[in-house]
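We emphasize that the prediction below concerns an isolated chain of 160 residues; any contacts that depend on oligomerization or on bound cofactors are therefore not represented. The input was used exactly as deposited, without trimming of termini.
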Amino acid sequence: ISELSIFNLTSKWNTQNNETIELKDLKGDVLVVVMVYTSCKAACPRLVADMRGIHQKVNSKKVKYVLVSIDPEVDTPEKLKAFAIENEMDNDQWVFLQGTVDDVREFSNVLAVKYKQISPIDFSHSNIISVFNPAGELYFQQEGLGVSNEEIVGKINELE
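Result of the prediction step, given as a token string:
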């Protein structure tokens, strides 16, 4: 593992299936990562739609779509599972992660995703989708909502 790999992070995460994993458990797949929270009414539904759109255009089982909650106190594994089902993201390619507040903060810093809680139920956050190669090294980032996903799909396909 290179020193640039996210697999060096030793944080433990709960999945939507209530399993505990480390990021290195995702090694070997291209990772498409976004940070969201399930109660978001503004940007997150668009980011989730963008992730689904990318998934529909990439015809590979060697890609995992990882959604990391920035609201780990509310987004329990059970809530993440219900969200996955509701958004038709309930198969092996979709991984929803809940971590500790500190681990989420550490991972957001690695991704250069900024967020802050602005009320008990609302966060302000960056809208960045990140692509990691199978070794866990950042390969590409796209910022924005509802932007064309052709470039990010092309980058994912380059890693195949």
